Amino acid sequence: MKRLDYLVGQPEEYIIKEATEMLGEYGIDYMKGYVYCGDSNEAYCEIADIYYDMKADMEDDLKKALDAGDMHSYAINVHGLKNNAKSLGIDGLADVAYDHELKSKADDIEYCTSHWPELLAVWNNSIKALSIYLRAMGVDKGFDDIESEDIEYKDDEYEESDIDMLFDDDDDELLNDVDFNEAKDNIRTLIESGMSDIAEEIINELIDETDNPVKIAQLRSMLN
Question: Would the CA dihedral through 140, 144, 145, 147 be positive or negative?
Fold first, then answer.
């Protein structure tokens, strides 16, 4: 029987392969989030856990601002949601949140109200996906409808070539694939959310992965 926490204690390469497939079924680009998190599944898991736990309060803040017609507060909160989603590779939610951000900044409350169900649906989809991932990593977040499968982990369950395909560029090229300004924006969001330790870890990882002096200087300035 495949345990729901079957990724606990497995090699990083195997976790990457499984998480990419698992989250990809829900439209989440795990590898993009993995790179944002300093090429660390541990950091990705920790941020995903926090993202999950913040959902109820963040949704409540957004709905209260929307019901009150407070588009300024709504724009600030939905901007944070967009950045959080991007840091985990949840591009579908990030795109919808960005539309809400633009419309709220334009005081278009009608758009934000009529498209609120869409935002919530995409958001809930990402929460369910991360619940499955987190449970596989040993963090139980509920959703009792998750099914268990008959499968036994074997050391040869993946081929090295499969993993090589995920990292077919060198580290600096991987860093360049991510919009650098967006990466910094996500790091700032982590710092503002009280996750400075994770932000510092990601910054140091990114510094190690690039030889671009301008990027290094900008990243180091964020440590101050």
Answer: positive
Which amino acid would we find at residue 129?
A
Q: Is 159 helix (H, G, I), strand (E, B) or coil?
A: coil
pLDDT at 151: 32
Residue pLDDT, tens place only, 110-149: 999 999 999 999 999 999 999 999 999 998 766 544 443 3
Distances (CA, A) of 66 to 31, 94, 116, 118, 141: 33, 18, 9, 14, 28
- The predicted pLDDT at position 158 comes to 38
Query: Would you give the distance in Å from CA 130 to the centre of its chain?
Result: 9
The alpha carbon of 80 is separated from its chain's Cα centroid by a whole number of angstroms, namely: 12
Rg of the chain (C-alpha set): 18
Give the pLDDT mean for 156-184: 47
* DSSP state, residue 146: P
- φ/ψ (deg, to 5) at 153: -70, 135
The dihedral through the CA atoms of 107, 108, 114, 120 has a sign that is: negative
**DSSP, res 169:** S
Count the Cβ atoms, other than its own, within 10 Å of residue 68.
10
Q: What average pLDDT score do residues 42-68 get?
A: 93
Enter the DSSP assignment of 145. Answer: T
In this structure, the number of other CB atoms found within 10 A of the CB of residue 46 comes to 18
DSSP states of 86-116: HHTT-HHHHHHHHHHHHHHHTT-HHHHHHTH
